[in-house]
Specification:
The complex is a heterodimer of chains A (about 190) and B (about 850). By secondary structure, chain A is an alpha+beta fold. Chain A contains 5 helices and 4 strands, in the order E-H-H-E-E-H-E-H-H. In chain A, a hairpin with a 4-residue loop joins strand 2 and strand 3. Chain A is globular and about 55 Å long. In chain A, about 30% of the residues are buried. Chain B is built from 28 helices and 24 strands. Chain B is globular, with a radius of gyration of 33 Å. Chain B starts with about 35 loop residues before the first helix and ends with a strand. The chains are: A alpha+beta (about 190), B alpha+beta (about 850). Chain B: This is Ribonucleases P/MRP protein subunit POP1-domain-containing protein.
């Protein structure tokens, strides 16, 4: 059966700059939490779509907007955890990705500096959801460790960083593979459609 | 648009949307995945670790829920949740036709879908569709007479009597005068009447009889069409699910496959041993094996003692060359001590039953003292089971009844029985062995448990199998005893009472205790070498309960035994390259009848198709200017192969009986090898058919009705072409190719070029054309892809006269066995290409 094919981008919003949280001066506030801060509620799914459209229009012009607009939808948008899943047309998901990457600030009223990171490109929503779950688990674990580390800072810090870096490396490798795989499958699909 | 009140009303009166615009199915649950906003996750804007973790936990939960609902949301409807082989067409619109647990869901869906629910219209009694209550008067009248009858028979004490009479005499001897003493059994043999079915099933069995497991099969298999029963039975043709490969696996590799073969007819003989022996000799039972059969020692002796069975052909009495009737199994009963009478069963396929019955009766009257012949068709049912797990299934389901004496000698059949569970092939058991004892109702031991194999069982089993003490210890099987058969059927308790007993057991899963009043079901199991199966003989009424438990036995290799229909029965025989009776024996009357029936069916199939999409038989080019199919294209047109002298048979005679005789394979082999010259001439006078196995040399798939030619005898040119085709097919893949020394380069290319030149491909102009009709020697009766061999094979019948004439031709003597193989050319009906094949007598 012929069907419209989509890509699902799993997106994280990271906050590297000044903390918007009131306790920014708290020395004990873990770096992790600062990095993965909640996104303000006024950054809604609709605003995200609009921001993407604007970005695509700016980067790729009317052509890009026309290509992307057909299947663009935010299927999951959680401000509390700064995570979204965005659906976009399979053939042009890179345009959406580019628009997201070039987004440096949250939309208008807020204007907080943000890094939008596409962590996973997948062909089905299920895999995107699994990725979000995996990352959330990972974050919970790290938050726990961070808290424990704060309690006995001196001893554990080294170990923690070691674990952290190794986990990071591991994730990097995984991501590489995943992106590769997705790219491959995308190419395959394209070649099939040809 | 006019307002049509008869049309379906929309479910909600307020909904005025036109029917086409309304969603057909209720909208799927929305795919929005719930997410908590930051303000609720972090109430006071403070970010701390605990809240951070909680927010992410919530995220995980909501996404997992989303995934779960997505899986469910694939909108499977209730009737689709039923296992495939239990789905009914009616299940899609009648909630009553799905399992009870799904009924509420089905009803809800029907309501959402705005489908009217019709209840009780698709069964019996009230009639269907527009006719509705057409038979209302009938039903009322019947009920009234039933009430009257009940009032009459309420008289006490005599009710018992009449019931006995009824069960012994069948429908015809229904009690008319209940005060009369029980009738003495008639001395002359009468055909058995089928048991009277329950009133609500009676009208469906006027022209046919249901098998004991009919209700099981009719839910799961394609049955014979209601108006065209086979041999007056409603027989399952094939399971509703796909089965070709699974049947092959179950029969040979893993698991088991069972058939309810209750339609097989049983003829009971009772007389002094000499009389029965005389009868069997008169009917030339197992002709060719007489030496073994009637000898005073060895297999024949064991057979007559009742510890083995014997399968063979039985013949009509007349003529120097008696006409074979059918392949039968003869089982003797072990002699009851103190009685000089013996009993024996003849088991025969229903297609040949009547012929055999008439012959047996005539032969029985001739014997002195005469033989009492009984038609036990509806008294003895049978189950056949095949496959590696067959024996363990039987060992678990058929449990011997408890005996009074606790210390059983270890070599009586019922003691040996559980030990046989690890037998995986019937060939491991002694040839044609037989085991008989009484079993308890298997429903009391339901669900059956996987047969356990004891540690020392292996050694003991080997000892048992080599010694086979059953030959000594087998007592008279009670299945030969009419009262035992009837009593077991009568004592069977209802499913309800069995359920009650099972419910009363303290520990769930434990079987209820057996009672002395429980029925002792006579059982006899034998190994059939011919069909490679285990056959269980049971009283007709007890087949159902055994069958149900059999189907639910958990095999040690996983899964349950499968069930098969007629098609599977033929398939397993075909895969063993064995002809199956009566389908592959057009030389017998039964097989001839089947062939005529099939002819009609194929013709009907053809006429059903539109003119543009069916083969125009008259315009098939056979090469050399010949046009049109040889003979009747839907048939194995045997009459064309009759010798000149027999050519002018009138149609009616053909319908009654086969113009051919079946020639047993051993005899055919002898004549072909011209070993038995003395009798050859006799055989050549009457047209004979013999069964062969056809396997393809190159490619091609022989199907039913394919034409089998010998190599053209009168066209040496064409014959050379076919032979060269065979040669080239050999050189393409010779068996010891690698051993050949490598050729030098120019030679290789030469050889390659030569081989390319040599073998014309099918469809090329050089490909040899098919021989003339005078070279037609037979037809394929069963042909298909053979999973056991991994290539297409076929069972064919050849006309002896046509084949042997070829050998007597002198010049072409080598042709019949070219290169040690008997070659032929097979052409499918409606095809122009002939394919090389070889045949062997089976």
């Amino acid at each position: 059966m012929v069907r419209v094919k989509n890509r699902y981008l799993t997106v994280n919003y990271l906050y590297t700059g000044q903390s918007r949280a009131s306790n920014k001066n708290d020395a004990t506030f873990p770096e992790l939490l600062q990095f993965h801060q909640p996104t303000p509620d006024d950054f809604t799914a609709g605003k995200l779509v609009r921001a993407i459209r604007d970005g695509v229009l700016e980067l790729f012009g009317d052509y890009g907007l026309g290509m992307v607009n057909t299947g663009l939808k935010v299927t999951y948008h959680s401000t509390a955890t700064s995570t979204s899943i965005i659906r976009c047309p399979q053939a042009h998901y890179e345009m959406v990705w580019a628009a997201l990457t070039f987004m440096t600030k949250l939309p208008k009223p807020n204007d907080a500096p943000v890094v939008v990171r596409v962590v996973r490109v997948s062909g089905t929503i299920k895999k995107a959801e699994e990725e979000v779950i995996r990352r959330a688990r990972d974050l919970i674990l790290r938050a726990k460790m961070a808290e424990a580390g704060r309690a006995e800072a001196g001893l554990v810090t080294n170990m923690l960083t070691a674990v952290d870096t190794s986990a990071h490396k591991e994730r990097e490798r995984e991501k590489q593979v995943l992106v590769d795989v997705d790219m491959d499958s995308a190419e395959e699909n394209e070649s099939e459609s040809d | 648009m006019t307002d049509n009140t008869k049309k379906r009303k929309s479910p909600s009166t307020g909904n005025s949307a036109p029917a086409a615009k309304r969603p057909r199915f209720p909208p799927r649950p929305s795919r929005n995945i719930a997410a908590t906003p930051s303000s609720t996750a972090y109430p006071n804007g403070q970010v701390n670790v605990a809240q951070f973790m909680r927010a992410h936990e919530n995220e995980i939960r909501s996404l997992e829920n989303a995934m779960k609902s997505a899986r469910k949301g694939l909108s499977r409807r209730a009737f689709q949740l039923v296992p495939r082989d239990l789905r009914r067409r009616t299940g899609s619109h009648n909630p009553q036709r799905v399992p009870r647990r799904l009924r509420p869901q089905a009803r809800r869906e029907a309501k959402d879908d705005n489908t009217p629910i019709k209840k009780g219209k698709s069964g019996s009694g009230v009639g269907k569709g527009a006719k509705g209550w057409l038979r209302k008067e009938d039903i009322k009248k019947r009920n009234r007479t039933k009430d009257k009858r009940q009032k009459v028979t309420v008289r006490p004490t005599e009710g018992e009597h009449s019931r006995h009479n009824d069960s012994s005499g069948g429908r015809k001897s229904a009690p008319t005068d209940s005060t009369a003493p029980p009738k003495k059994r008639k001395n002359f043999a009468a055909l058995a009447a089928p048991p009277t079915p329950a009133s609500r099933f009676r009208r469906r069995q006027v022209h046919k009889t249901w098998l004991p497991s009919h209700l099981f099969h009719t839910k799961r298999a394609t049955m014979t069409p209601p108006k065209e029963p086979l041999w007056r039975f409603a027989i399952p043709l094939s399971p509703a699910v796909k089965t070709y490969r699974t049947t092959h696996r179950a029969a040979t590799e893993r698991g088991a496959i069972a058939w309810d073969m209750s339609y097989m007819a049983t003829i009971g003989l009772e007389a002094a041993e000499e009389s029965i022996t005389g009868l069997l000799k008169a009917l030339q039972f197992a002709k060719g094996d007489e030496g073994f059969l009637w000898s005073m020692r060895g297999r024949g002796k064991k057979w007559r003692d009742g510890s083995r069975i014997w399968e063979g052909w039985i013949h009509e009495r007349e003529g120097t060359l008696p006409k074979p009737i059918a392949q039968v199994a003869v089982i003797w009963s072990v002699q009851r001590p103190g009685s000089n009478k013996r009993k024996a069963f003849i088991r025969v396929h229903p297609s040949a039953f009547l012929r055999l019955w008439n012959v047996v009766i005539r032969a029985a009257n001739v014997q002195k003292p005469s033989v009492i012949v009984d038609d036990l068709r509806f008294e003895i049912g049978s189950i056949e089971i095949m496959g590696p797990a067959a024996m363990e299934t039987l060992c678990s389901v058929l449990t011997p009844t408890a005996t009074e004496t606790s210390d059983l000698p270890s070599d009586v059949p019922r003691a040996i029985w559980p030990r046989l569970a690890s037998v995986t092939r019937p060939g491991e058991l002694p040839q044609n062995a037989l085991v008989a004892f009484n079993i308890s109702d298997p429903r009391l031991r339901h669900p059956p448990k996987t047969a356990s194999v004891l540690d020392d069982a292996e050694d003991k089993l080997l000892g048992t199998l080599t010694e086979w003490p059953v030959d000594r210890t087998q007592t008279t099987p009670s299945i030969f005893d009419r009262t035992a058969r009837l009593a077991s059927g009568r004592l069977l308790s209802s499913q309800q009472s069995i359920n009650r007993r099972k419910g009363a057991v303290a520990v769930p899963g434990q079987y209820p205790d057996l009672r002395p009043t429980d029925p002792q079901i006579p059982m006899l199991t034998y190994v059939s070498k011919n069909s490679n199966t285990l056959t269980v003989l049971l009283p007709w009424k007890c087949v159902k309960s055994v069958w149900k438990c059999l189907m639910q036995y958990p095999c040690s290799s996983g899964g349950n035994p499968r069930f098969g229909g007629l098609q599977e029965r033929r398939q397993v025989d075909f895969e063993r390259s064995m002809p199956s009776f009566p389908f592959d024996f057009p030389g017998t009357d039964a097989g001839w009848e089947w062939e005529l029936k099939e002819r009609e069916a194929r013709k009907h199939e053809w006429t059903k198709r539109p003119r543009g999409k069916r083969i125009e038989w008259t315009s098939i080019p056979l090469g050399d200017g010949r046009k049109g199919e040889v003979g009747d294209p839907w048939a194995c047109d045997w009459t064309r192969l009759l010798p000149e002298s027999h050519g002018n048979l009138d149609e009616e005679a053909q319908i009654l009986a086969s113009p051919f005789r079946y020639l047993a394979s051993a005899q055919a082999e002898g004549i072909l090898a011209s070993r038995s010259e003395a009798t050859s001439q006799e055989f050549l006078d009457i047209p004979h058919l013999f069964t062969v196995k056809v396997s393809m040399v190159q490619r091609g798939m022989p199907t039913d009705c394919a034409r089998v030619y010998k190599f053209p005898s009168k066209k040496p040119e064409l014959q050379k072409k076919w032979l060269s085709l065979y040669e080239s097919s050999k050189s393409k893949n010779p068996p010891g190719k690698s051993a050949k020394k490598p050729l030098s380069h120019p030679n290789t290319t030469q050889a390659l070029a030569a081989s390319l030149l040599e073998s014309p491909k099918a469809g090329d102009d050089e490909y040899p054309i098919v021989p003339d009709e005078e070279d037609l020697i037979g037809f394929v009766t069963t042909g298909n892809f053979n999973l056991a061999e991994g290539r297409p094979t076929a069972i064919a019948n050849l006309v002896l006269q046509r084949v042997v004439a070829l050998e007597d031709g002198g010049v072409l003597k080598t042709d019949s066995r070219y290169d040690g193989k008997r070659l032929c050319i097979v052409r499918e009906a409606g095809q122009t290409l002939g394919r090389l094949a070889m045949w062997d007598v089976v």
